[in-house]
Write a structure and sequence with these properties.
Elements: H1 15-20, H2 26-35, H3 37-48, E1 57-60, E2 68-71, E3 74-75, H4 77-83, E4 94-99, E5 105-109, H5 110-126, E6 134-138, H6 143-155, E7 158-161, H7 168-178, E8 182-186, E9 189-191, E10 194-196, H8 198-208, E11 214-218, E12 232-234, H9 235-239, E13 253-254, E14 258-264, E15 272-277, H10 278-293, E16 300-303, H11 310-322, E17 326-330, H12 341-349, E18 353-356, H13 358-365, H14 370-373, E19 382-386, H15 392-402, E20 409-412, E21 445-448, E22 461-465, E23 475-476, H16 480-487, E24 499-507, E25 513-518, E26 522-525, E27 528-531, H17 532-540, E28 545-555, E29 559-568, H18 576-589, E30 598-601, H19 615-623
Parallel strand pairs: 4-17, 6-7, 6-8, 7-14, 8-11, 11-12, 16-17, 16-18, 18-19, 19-20, 29-30
Antiparallel strand pairs: 1-2, 3-13, 4-5, 9-10, 14-15, 15-23, 21-22, 22-24, 24-25, 26-27, 28-29
The structure holds 5'-O-[(S)-butoxy(hydroxy)phosphoryl]adenosine (WT7).
5'-O-[(S)-butoxy(hydroxy)phosphoryl]adenosine is lined by residues 264, 310-311, 386-389, 411-416, 436, 501-503, 515, 517-518, 524, 529.
Length: 636
């Protein structure tokens, strides 16, 4: 038990959490990892997974910052997530409990999931999908998205999942950039009782670039959709063919072979394709899940994210299956048809661990305590938070109303790039609301100034990571130079590779990390990561707009909202109706989550002499703050 000597508002773990936890002593593990990083991961990798062939080098830094892990090893993440379990008693354990928004339910045991994945993989193989090929997946939260991802991985194909809340141009750009030859989608997805027309959006995206040879369409919502002859195939028809063989051999992969790419927004330009691999990612994601959320055989784990983001990739799809856990997946909105939908799900499925985002908690908090109070939430043992800093008020509500002051909250800081939790409590860690607490064992980080020197306690600086870790991204697919320049160039020095997270943070006198937010042009809206560049280019793609600049401004519910500034083309009238049209246009091109809350028409935008929009100045103006150093500002 930790000594009660920490500063500020601190929540110490309840006695039963400590005595029932299987998680090893944090200080001891951290010390072991620090004294021999490669040895630490070597032992974990040896003890917990099946490898077709062992590695000769645990960590290879010879081409840093292109770090490699478990070099020489052969495996396949799907072998560890499915194939090995069906040889044991877990064969008939429930892998996935699924509930659709309309209330329909499905469960899949490991055996059933293994067969389904085999069938989809056989179909993909019959379509000519091979190791290294890219497959774009654009679906709602239905079991088939999990099946599709695993089917690709089983064949050694690289999946590129595009979140179902993205729209035409976002989807098109990602398909084109990845050169996908097959796409998998649904006719639609249920959201708040409405249909998101995924297939229509896919058609429009493919219309803009017809590189995809085949589209597999899973029927979910049942409305009429266009099926392009020779290109589009219903999945249920394919399943009736003899090619849909549940037995499909799992491809033998190098530990360092690509598993997936996932596009995420960065500082400038187009979204970046973050690349993760079979070996290190497998080890990192499942080890962090086991250690932080203390997953036990009889747990019902619910990661309420979407599989289309890294949270879903790591902690809905891969890590829980690797651990042989039972997961819940829910298709729809938390408030549909009533604001107790989530609490009803917890009660009815006996969820023991709930992992969600602060924005969801704040959204549900608004409806008051009577909704959760209608339900028996006593099954909950641990809670989790991810995606943005959690404000202490939401933390306390989550802890008191949902966790009944018993279930500790694991506030996990990480990124698409990191693949797994990096700063996080473990069940026994004393908690401070709003702080993700301490680095995961083996992770070393720092908070530094402009020169890369550590700043004193309680001062804000750049959050950097100074050690490699197994689940780290390996590169940006198709753009290795940008990988180096975006993440490693800024702070690396004296032969030491230092990873720039893009976040600012403070470290308090107890060593607890308080992440403040992004320092680049990434905007976190309801925990979703969006880039200013994508939204700006959607705005200027409208015939009325000459130039656009967008910024994020703080919002109580969403964390941030988007504010857009537009310069109109000559002769175009700035009207409220046009502002609405432009908001809708961004929604159509990028996705509803990217819609600016406000569009303001201006005659000029603050720019540097080299023509870059100074969003910092726009932000200061919007918030009525000091505009700071304007020496690089171009005069109007
Ligand atoms: C950015 C990464 C990785 C999971 C989902 C987001 C912010 C994430 C926290 C947290 C404060 C957080 C950071 C980070 N973030 N978790 N617990 N506390 N901020 O992945 O979309 O790649 O976004 O999300 O700003 O850099 P992502």
């Amino acid at each position: 038990m930790a000594e009660r000597t920490l500063n500020g508002e601190v929540y110490y773990p309840a006695e039963d959490i400590v005595s029932n936890s299987n998680v090893p002593d944090r200080a001891a593990v951290t010390q072991a990892a620090e004294s021999d990083l490669a040895g630490f991961w070597n032992q974990i990798a040896e003890e917990n997974y099946e490898w077709f062939e062992p590695w000769h080098t645990t960590l290879d830094s010879s081409e840093a910052p292109f770090f490699k892990w478990f070099v020489g090893a052969k495996t396949n993440i799907v072998h560890n997530a499915l194939d090995r379990h069906i040889k044991t008693w877990r064969r008939n354990k429930v892998a996935l409990i699924w509930e659709g928004e309309p209330g329909d339910r499905r469960t899949l045991t490991y055996h059933q999931l293994h067969r389904q994945v085999g069938r989809m993989a056989s179909v993909l193989r019959a379509m000519g999908v091979r190791k290294g090929d890219r497959v774009t997946i654009y679906m709602g939260r239905v079991p088939e998205i999990v099946i599709a991802m695993l089917a690709c991985a089983k064949l050694g194909a690289i999946h590129s999942v595009v979140y179902g809340g993205f729209s035409v141009e976002a989807l098109h750009g990602r398909i084109e950039d990845s050169h996908s030859k097959v796409a998998i989608t649904c006719d639609g997805a249920w959201l708040r009782g409405n249909i998101v027309p995924l297939k229509d959006i896919m058609d429009e995206a493919l219309h803009r670039s017809p590189t995809v040879q085949n589209v597999i369409v899973v029927k979910r919502t049942g409305q009429e959709v266009h099926m392009e002859p020779g290109r589009d195939l219903w999945y249920h028809d394919l399943l009736n063919l003899p090619i849909a063989d549940p037995y499909c051999e799992t491809e033998v992969m190098d530990a360092e072979d690509p598993l997936f790419i996932l596009y995420t927004s960065g500082t400038t330009g187009r979204p970046k394709a973050i690349l993760h691999t079979h070996g290190g990612y497998m080890v990192g994601t499942s080890t962090t899940l086991r250690t932080v959320f203390d997953i036990k055989e009889d747990d019902v784990w619910w990661c309420a994210a979407d599989p289309g983001w890294i949270t879903g990739h790591s902690y809905i799809v891969y890590a829980p299956l690797i651990l042989g856990a039972t997961s819940l997946m829910y298709e729809g909105a938390p408030t549909h048809p009533f604001p107790d939908r989530w609490w009803k799900l917890v009660e009815e499925h006996g969820v023991t661990i709930l992992y969600t985002a602060p924005t969801a908690i704040r959204g549900l908090m608004r409806f008051g305590e009577s909704w959760p109070e209608r339900h028996d939430l006593s099954s909950l043992r641990l809670l989790g938070s991810v995606g943005e800093p959690i404000n202490p008020e939401a933390w306390r509500w989550y802890h008191r109303v949902i966790g009944k002051e018993r279930a500790p909250i694991m506030d996990t800081w990480w990124q698409t790039e990191t693949g797994n939790f990096m700063i996080t409590p473990m069940p026994e860690t004393p908690l401070k609301p709003g702080s993700a607490s301490l680095a995961f064992p083996g992770v070393k980080l720092d908070v530094v100034d402009e020169e890369g020197d550590p700043v004193p306690a309680n001062e804000e600086g750049y959050l950097v990571i100074t050690t490699p870790w197994p689940a780290m991204m390996r590169t940006l697919f198709g753009d290795p130079d940008r990988y180096v320049s975006t993440y490693w160039e800024r702070f690396s020095k004296d032969g030491e590779w230092i990873y720039m997270t893009g976040d600012s943070a403070k470290r308090d006198e107890d060593g607890y990390i308080w992440v403040i937010g992004r320092v680049d042009d990434v905007i976190k809206v309801s925990g979703y990561r969006l880039g200013t560049a994508e939204i700006e280019s959607a705005l200027v793609s409208h015939p009325t707009v000459a130039e656009a600049g967008v910024i994020g401004v703080p919002d109580e519910l969403k964390g941030n909202i988007i504010k857009a500034y537009c310069i109109l083309r000559q002769g175009i009238e700035p009207t409220a109706k046009l502002a609405d049209t432009l908001r809708e246009h961004v929604g159509y091109e990028v996705g509803p989550i990217a819609k600016p809350a406000t569009v303001e028409f201006v005659n000029s935008l603050p720019k540097t002499r080299s023509g870059k929009i100074m969003r910092r100045v726009l932000r200061a103006r919007a918030l009525g703050q000091d505009e700071g150093d304007l020496s690089t500002l171009q005069p109007d």
